[in-house]
TrEMBL record, chain A:
PROSITE patterns: N6_MTASE, SAM_MT_TRM11. CDD domains: AdoMet_MTases (cd02440). The gene is TRMT11. This is tRNA (guanine(10)-N(2))-methyltransferase TRMT11. It catalyses: guanosine(10) in tRNA + S-adenosyl-L-methionine = N(2)-methylguanosine(10) in tRNA + S-adenosyl-L-homocysteine + H(+).
Automatic annotation (TrEMBL), chain B:
The keyword Nuclease does not apply. It comes from Phyllostomus discolor (pale spear-nosed bat). GO terms for cellular component: nucleoplasm; perinuclear region of cytoplasm. It is found in: Cytoplasm, Perinuclear region; Nucleus, Nucleoplasm. Belongs to the TRM112 family. This is Multifunctional methyltransferase subunit TRM112-like protein. GO terms for biological process: rRNA (guanine-N7)-methylation; tRNA methylation. GO terms for molecular function: methyltransferase activity; protein heterodimerization activity. It holds the Pfam family Trm112p. Keywords: Cytoplasm, Methyltransferase, Nucleus, Transferase. SUPFAM superfamilies: Trm112p-like.
Length: 397, 125
């Protein structure tokens, strides 16, 4: 429970039912020997009522607590600091526009622990000093850190670090973090701000400042301006986890360094940020590079966690990039629009990486199923363009 | 840039391969940033470090007495770990350069951040 942002609390269930009467008879069937350690005369306790999708008055809550008098509570009530907390949980469904008179389900249990859902609020991107157009939602960044099995004293790397959102979550769990990004401005915290009503980024807006904001600066190792397709690490295994959200080519462009002489636009304020070139970076190549990089630099047992954008109508499971050294652990979908989604892919290194060249011909053939997604950008907007075409047609008629 | 990171960096200039390590460090501005000492983390890093490269970099920055190799039983030796902690994590090169020992190509370090970008002719095939 110290890790999950997906569970609010955990209770030891003592009884449940679809009505109060069913609940009470269920409780009467719960073995007394199991209750006694928490109800004996030396203990202190309190009872809380939680209702989901309905508000009760204080009077109504007290009535429910009183109805539980038949339980063999022998301890003293202590509302401030009880040893044991018991909860009645009433489920009134999921539709706030249609709240039933009586609950669908009622549960009674002994509270054991809370999850980490408050991290979603305390690390909210809304309050973060430095954000970008595609900064990861706080809840998702913690889920990714959990998928990466990030723990104290790990080294976690993000090759598409952006504003460092994923590093923040890993640092929260005690890992030392580093990252790279091809965009000089983002890594340095310069240029146009992503917040509404703000023109340029302020002096406290960079990745290090984000960690400092949460008291996690000691976990900051380094960030570098670097092209993820051309990594500059010496041969070896350094990272316990690689956790990243590569660009999909929609709100951030996919780029890499190459030989065409093309000056990128929009660097008015920061001329020194000149990226030598900006070639288009096909999505399938990017994932091939990422998997190869992970296979080479992860320690054995280390994890790669990343988002894979897909055009849902054409998606099949064998489109998920693979690598002989990495085992697929999980693949979870998040819908983005009616015809696109992204999948959270988790892989674990299970085999030693032998030779850089060995894998190139193997993988490009296998990655072919994903080739279609190189025009992910076109497909993403295809729904929109079809609608516009339809509207234009109906206007003309 | 911290010396721990420098120890992992290598030049990816075309044709250079393993001869691109270590990058020759030159610093015009260095600062010391105290970082909370964590012996477990430092002990974990010791086996990953290329010692000769670290000594060379530390000497370039005139950091004083640098152990030439990890001592026996370093995991329990707090003095040793504290020294390594300082060298690896608390010394930051703010302005300077990293030079590929084979090709001579220079990567600048600005505001503590190295820029490793190359144009196509210079990158690994």
């Amino acid at each position: 429970m110290k890790r999950t942002v997906c569970a609010k609390s955990i209770f030891e269930l003592w009884g449940h039912g679809k009505s109060p009467e069913e609940l009470y008879s269920s409780l009467k069937n719960y073995p007394v020997e199991k209750m006694v350690p928490f109800l004996h005369s030396g203990s202190t306790y309190k009872i809380k009522i939680h209702t989901f999708n309905k508000t009760l008055t204080q009077e109504e809550k007290v009535k429910r607590i009183d109805a539980l008098e038949f339980l063999p509570f022998e301890g003293k009530v202590n509302l401030k600091n009880p040893q044991h907390i018991f909860s009645v949980l009433e489920d009134y469904g999921l539709d706030p526009n249609c709240i039933p008179e009586n609950p669908h389900n009622i549960y009674f249990g002994r509270w054991i622990a809370d999850g980490q859902r408050e991290l979603i609020e305390s690390y909210s991107v809304k309050k973060r000093h430095f954000i970008g157009n595609t900064s990861m939602d706080a809840g998702l960044s913690f889920i990714m850190a959990n998928h990466g099995k990030v723990k104290e004293n790990d080294i976690v790397f993000d090759p598409f670090v952006g504003t460092g959102g994923l590093l923040v979550a890993s640092a929260h769990f005690g890992a030392y973090v580093c990252g790279t990004d091809i965009d000089y401005n983002t890594v340095h915290g310069l240029g146009k701000a992503s917040r509404k009503n703000q023109k340029w980024r302020g002096p406290d807006e960079n990745i290090r400042a984000n960690l400092r904001q949460y008291g996690l600066e000691k976990y900051y190792l380094d960030v570098l301006v670097s092209d993820a397709s051309k990594p500059s690490w010496r041969k070896g295994t350094y990272f316990d986890a690689i956790i990243t959200d590569p660009p999909y080519g929609i709100r951030e462009s996919t780029r890499r360094t190459g030989s065409q002489k093309e000056t990128p636009k929009g660097i008015e304020k920061c001329p020194e940020s000149h990226v030598p070139v900006s070639l288009s970076y096909h999505l399938s190549d990017m994932f091939f590079d990422l998997l190869n990089f992970a296979a080479e630099t992860l320690i054995l047992g280390g994890r790669l966690v990343y988002w894979l954008p897909v055009y849902t109508p054409e998606y099949t499971e064998d489109m998920v990039p693979w690598h002989p050294c990495l085992k697929l652990i999980s693949n979870c979908e998040q819908k983005l629009s009616s015809h696109t989604s992204r999948r959270l892919i988790t892989m674990e290194k299970v085999k030693k990486f032998e030779n850089r060249d060995q894998y190139s011909h193997l993988l490009s053939g296998q990655c072919l199923p994903y080739q279609g997604h190189n025009s992910f950008r076109e497909r993403y907007f295809s729904g929109l363009t079809k609608r516009i075409a339809k509207e234009e047609k109906s206007v003309q008629e | 840039m911290k010396l721990l990171t420098h120890n992992f960096l290598s030049s990816h200039v075309k044709g250079v391969g393993p001869r691109g390590f270590p990058l020759r460090l030159q610093a015009s501005e260095v600062r010391i940033m105290p970082v909370e000492f964590n012996p477990d983390f430092v002990a974990r890093m010791i086996p990953k470090v290329e010692w000769a490269a670290l000594v060379e970099a530390a000497n370039t920055l005139s950091l004083g007495e640098v152990p030439t190799e990890p001592i026996q039983g370093y995991e329990q030796n707090e003095d040793f770990l504290r020294t390594m902690h300082h060298i690896l994590l608390e010394v930051e090169v703010m302005e300077g350069t990293l030079q590929c020992p084979e090709s001579g190509r220079v990567f600048p370090i600005t505001r503590g951040i190295p820029n490793m970008l190359l144009s196509d002719e210079q990158t690994e095939a």
